[in-house]
Structures are given as C-alpha cells and as structure tokens.
C-alpha cells in the first residue's frame, strides 16, 4: 500500500526533525521570532521547543537554541491566500525569513 504524504504529515515530519535537535547540547543565547500575518490569518507552529498559536502578528522572544541552532516552523490554520511571514532574529539581526500565501502554507526558519 502506498501512502501519499499530506500537509499534516509533512508538518509532522518537519516538527519531528526540529525535536530531534533537542537531543544536542544546549546554548544560553536566545532569539526572537517575529510573525506577520494578514488580517484574519491564524497560524500554529513550533518555535524553539514550544508550540504557539495566534491570529495576526506576534513577536515571540526568549526562543532557545540547541547547540547554537535555532529553528521554527509555522503553518497557516486559516484557508485562503492570506500572507504569513516569519522572521528569525538573533542579537537583533535577521538571520532567516520566509513567507507563504499558499492555502494552509507553512514556513520554516533556521539559523544554519
């Protein structure tokens, strides 16, 4: 039997990869993830080692890295082509940015 991956399966595999990083030696530096979303666009994601949800913009501070690697995965929960953008900042400097307008689209950020 052949299984075709779905968006949910793909996001689950992505989150599993981020969780795998948790087994590495930690670091004390923290980062910030800035999320920008069009009005009415709700999202969910794994940011560092925690799950966050929201609608519209958000700034998540105190994101911890694992062995100097910072990661976040954010997915739209709202149907439609509204924009979702995420930005990873370390020391106030942008190190990665991604955006999507795809229905239920996801973005992934990493410092490496």
From TrEMBL:
Keywords, alphabetical: Plasmid, Signal
Signal peptide: 1-22
The protein's name: Lipoprotein
């Amino acid at each position: 039997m052949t299984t075709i991956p779905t968006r949910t399966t793909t996001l689950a595999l992505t989150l599993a990869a981020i969780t795998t990083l948790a087994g590495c030696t930690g670091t004390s530096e923290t980062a910030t993830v800035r999320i920008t979303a069009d009005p009415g666009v709700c999202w969910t994601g794994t940011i560092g080692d925690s799950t966050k949800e929201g609608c519209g913009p958000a700034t998540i501070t105190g994101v911890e890295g694992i062995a100097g690697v910072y990661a976040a995965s954010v997915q739209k929960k709202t149907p439609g082509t509204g924009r979702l953008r995420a930005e990873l900042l370390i020391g106030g400097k942008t190190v990665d940015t991604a955006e999507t307008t795809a229905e239920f689209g996801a973005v992934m950020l990493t410092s490496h």
